[in-house]
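Troubleshooting log. The previous structure file for this entry was overwritten by mistake, so regenerating from the original sequence record. Sequence copied from the archived sheet and checked twice against the printout by T.R.
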Amino acid sequence: MKNLLIVLLVLLAGSTWAQAPKKNGIIYKEHPYITIVNKSNDLFIKQDWAGLAKLYADTAIFYDPTSPKKISLADQKKGWAAIAKDWGDIKIVKVGYPDGLQYDKDPFTVQSWWTITTVNKKTKKTAKFHLVQFDEFNKAGKIAVEIAYYDQTPLINASK
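Regenerated output below.
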């Protein structure tokens, strides 16, 4: 019985090695959509909301840890203005380089990592946090979905 169990385990392990690798797409280090994501951060720092909004589809959807539901482009524009009202000296530093992910069946996605430092205008306290962002592009080359993940704790603490 013990030998049968060992043979079975060896056969199962061997079958996993026998599987042929399968590609799911291509990863880009340089791509026009990566340039758009980089430009979006430059426009954000300049507070060029009109220029920034042009990078997004009119139907763009945003997901952010500060909201339990998806956010429209119109509401996101208000959010950008609120950030500029409450926070100053915003610095966005790219961590590594963004990856352009061209999956076989999914929208082209740029994933990027950033370190953000900003100062609360009321308290004068600094918040520094890391952010990972996923931008999905539509066929017209506009950002259709943007998903951001970050720890809100530094922002909350700097607001106190």
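The mean pLDDT is 92. Archived copy saved in two places this time.
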